[in-house]
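Hello, quick one for you while I still have it in my head. I'm working through a protein record and want to make sense of it properly. Would you mind checking whether the tokens look sensible for this chain? I owe you a coffee for this, so here goes:
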Amino acid sequence: MKSPVEVPPAQAIWRDRRAQALLLAATLTIMANATISPALPGLAREFADHPQVDLLTRLLVPAPSLAVVFVAPLVGVLSDRIGRRGLLVWGIALFVLAGSAGLVLPSLESMLVSRLILGIAVAAIMTTQTALTGDYFSGAARVALTGLQTSARNFGGFVFISTAGVLAALSPRLPFAIYALPLLVLPFVLQSLPRPVRLVAAQVGKASATDGHRNWLLILTGLLLLQMVTNMTFFIMPTQIPFYLDALGHDSAVTTGTVLGLLTLAGGLAALMYGRLAARVGVSGSWTLGYGAMATGMAAIGAQAGLPAMLAGAVCIGIGFAWVLPAFVTVMLAIAPARRRGAAGGLLTTAIFLGQVLSPFLSLPIIAAIGFDGLYLGAGVLLATISALALIGCVLQRRRIRGHAV
């Protein structure tokens, strides 16, 4: 078994068993919310006599996100205190129990409670998986792994949601069985991740009082705000595109599946290239290109130039988001002290899910005021502005490097 501090070459990162275990854990977080979406109409019919069936069935999907927002910072602090590997294992076990409970639970209320508990498991998995990436890997290998994690989430989400659609056609309860699949992953995680991670992290923290960036809390605060805004903007795709397509006269179900499917697949493929991209242009460069691609995609969708333009826009958004997202983890791991990676990762996880939760609430007033096209065009302007600021940062950084070289 590899030691916690042994770092493989970036090109061979996917062959490392620790990386494989963390990639498998990454795929679990994407299935938490949307996997049961295809089952919602069937569940509504099953509990048709319930007076609040419409509200409760719709709350089943975002419930894990709500739990993550409140729990992730606490889980992060806990992981720094008791160890990240053990908390990851317990998180996966809780994920299996809470997620698959919907197979047998007798009421919508009990299902909603199980979904909230599932959110606690997601917070544990996502927070510890991010921190362990920093514990096990550094440099180019760490950057490459963050890109692969985004790719794993995209491809995993595509497979899980597609499978859930097939199972939901047989029974609205069957999609909950997908949450039991991580039980097969658990032995591999236990075998592949070394035990002494907590000890190593603690030793690093004691060995260097200056571990991490001097102003890491200030930088992290800005990073969290940008992460929240990014996710809030991105999530107008899954939350608003079905209604936009319906308003344009398209078959919303089929076309929505095509648009989001292309977005997911494009993102999965683009994320595979993130390691090489970041090595060439750095974080500022990847943000410049990523936010620029997202801005182009939003503008194409808002322009009402026809379905082909919307599909091309979805591809651009998927590519851009895949180049933007890993950089947040890379920067967080670079600036936070090793002994505080769990806490920092928990806050980053909260920012991700808070953006998801806030997105519909902020989108609806904008749609009411300027329409769907105005929403997407406005998002394009916002993302283009962020891209321009990242470009300025990239240019200034290169000038600073050249100045030091001289």
The mean pLDDT is 86. The two ends are 45 Å apart (CA to CA). Residues 9-207 form a domain with the Growth Hormone; Chain: A; fold (CATH 1.20.1250.20). The chain has 15 helices and no strands.
